[in-house]
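Work Package 4 report. The design task specified in the project plan requires that, given a folded chain encoded as structure tokens, an amino acid be chosen for each position. We show below one input record used in the internal validation round.
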């Protein structure tokens, strides 16, 4: 880790983000342009995200499977909207084993096509439905502008794919999984998100309806943090996914897909981070508590380390790291763990041993204000309480920031100002023409049509026509 300070977020937010990731050893640039290497600390955070989501998926009846990385090009061409939406981003293999392939293979950008093909083989009767399958894996999309975690050529994610007998069941599934994402983001990541519907222009290529959770980052830009799609019968018709109903008649299935990726690591960093580096929510932090022993002599060490080990054992229910490095100073260690966003730091020196106390510093409250001395007895209970307080504090702080930077402009001129400093929550008539002109004028897109609507009606912020829904306009990553 470099001793050099990070750029401040107010001076250069983009460089702060990149440097925070590199110096905290979350990820590094790969030798292939636009790709990243996720380092162990970053992967540990992703593993905790995986576990939190996977537990929820299984609780709702979903099972995991694995599908191929390579997809025949002809599969991609079966669903017109899908191929048009993804064609600029496809990586295609034309040579294998030194031979030109009879049919080019697409490196998986998403799996609706290959899974649709398999579902057409597996589903024969209404008794086979619903199918509720998820897979964890990697995908490739040939992006032009990339940024660590937020947008890379290859990234890691989960993608759920389900098939149902009715439109109503498919819509219920789409919304159920959106709710799973919403609850995970709020409860585990302390990221306040707005669940909503995408506009026709912004929806997933090939979907009937797309839903999203949108989060506001620390620079007020929006980040699409997870999506859930009702695919209608589009892929069922393209891949002939049909079943015999109870009247012995052939019907097309209704399918869904939903995904959540390593981009959310970026969401956590940008939602909670500060000028000292990362601030990680305790429920997901790879290390929840770091213990820093402090001593100057061998005599001090012989008194301090047994207490450190005792406390380490007492805190076994938590993810704990003892920083016993001897080649760096305690001050360096403090800065290092602040940069990495560890929620709690415990310092134990000779005086603490004498007094039967430890010094605990909260990462979410910088400086002396976040440092307290507590007795060594019943420390596990105090640590649990502090971690819970940090989790709640991070959510409350992020929600207040979002609310303080969400505006309700009176007219279009005010909207232009609002999206330069946050989000605009405005009436919109639903016209794609108004949507496109607004994007051209302001570089802000319709992030989502929130599920929670005020009711009633108003005038479209752009054209003045009657509108029955309010949308979030914002600049986005």
């Amino acid at each position: 880790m470099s001793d050099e300070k990070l750029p401040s977020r107010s001076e250069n937010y983009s460089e702060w983000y990149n440097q925070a990731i590199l110096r905290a050893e979350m990820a590094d640039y790969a030798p292939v342009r636009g790709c990243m290497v996720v380092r162990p600390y970053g992967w540990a955070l992703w593993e905790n995200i995986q576990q939190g989501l996977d537990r929820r998926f299984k609780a709702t009846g979903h099972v995991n499977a694995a599908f191929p990385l390579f997809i025949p090009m002809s599969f991609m061409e079966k669903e017109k909207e899908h191929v048009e939406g993804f064609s600029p981003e496809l990586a295609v293999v034309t040579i294998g084993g030194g031979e030109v392939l009879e049919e080019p293979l697409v490196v998986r950008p998403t799996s609706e096509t290959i899974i649709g093909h398999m579902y057409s083989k597996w589903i024969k009767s209404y008794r086979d439905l619903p199918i509720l399958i998820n897979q964890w894996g990697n995908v490739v999309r040939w992006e032009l502008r990339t940024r660590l975690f937020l947008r890379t050529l290859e990234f890691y994610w989960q993608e759920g794919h389900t098939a149902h007998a009715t439109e109503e069941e498919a819509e219920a599934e789409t919304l159920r999984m959106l709710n799973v994402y919403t609850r995970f983001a709020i409860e585990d990541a302390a990221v306040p998100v707005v669940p909503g519907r995408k506009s026709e222009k912004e929806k997933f290529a090939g979907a009937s309806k797309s839903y999203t959770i949108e989060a506001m980052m620390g620079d007020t830009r929006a980040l699409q943090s997870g999506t859930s799609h009702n695919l209608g019968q589009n892929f069922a018709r393209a891949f002939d996914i049909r079943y015999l109903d109870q009247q012995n008649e052939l019907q097309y299935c209704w399918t869904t897909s939903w995904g959540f990726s390593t981009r959310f690591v970026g969401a956590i960093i940008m939602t909670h981070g500060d000028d000292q580096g990362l601030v990680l929510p305790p429920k997901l932090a790879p290390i929840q508590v770091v213990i820093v022993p402090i001593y100057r002599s061998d005599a001090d060490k012989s008194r301090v380390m047994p207490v450190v080990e005792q406390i380490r054992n007492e805190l076994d229910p938590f993810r704990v790291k003892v920083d016993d490095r001897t080649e760096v100073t305690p001050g360096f260690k403090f800065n290092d763990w602040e940069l990495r966003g560890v929620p709690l730091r415990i310092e134990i020196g000779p005086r603490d041993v004498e007094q039967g106390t430890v010094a605990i510093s909260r990462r979410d409250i910088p400086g002396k204000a976040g440092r307290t001395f507590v007795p060594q007895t019943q420390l596990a209970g105090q640590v649990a309480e502090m971690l819970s307080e940090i989790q709640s504090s991070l959510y409350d702080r992020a929600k207040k920031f979002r609310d303080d930077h969400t505006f309700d402009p009176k007219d279009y001129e005010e909207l232009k100002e609002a999206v330069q400093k946050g989000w605009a929550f405005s009436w919109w008539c639903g016209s794609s023409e108004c949507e496109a002109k607004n994007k051209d004028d302001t570089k802000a897109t319709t992030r989502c049509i929130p599920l929670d609507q005020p009711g009633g009606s108003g005038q479209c912020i752009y054209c003045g026509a009657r509108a029955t829904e309010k949308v979030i306009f914002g600049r986005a990553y």
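The domain at 289-386 is CATH 3.40.50.800 (Rossmann fold). Validation will be extended to a larger panel in the next phase.
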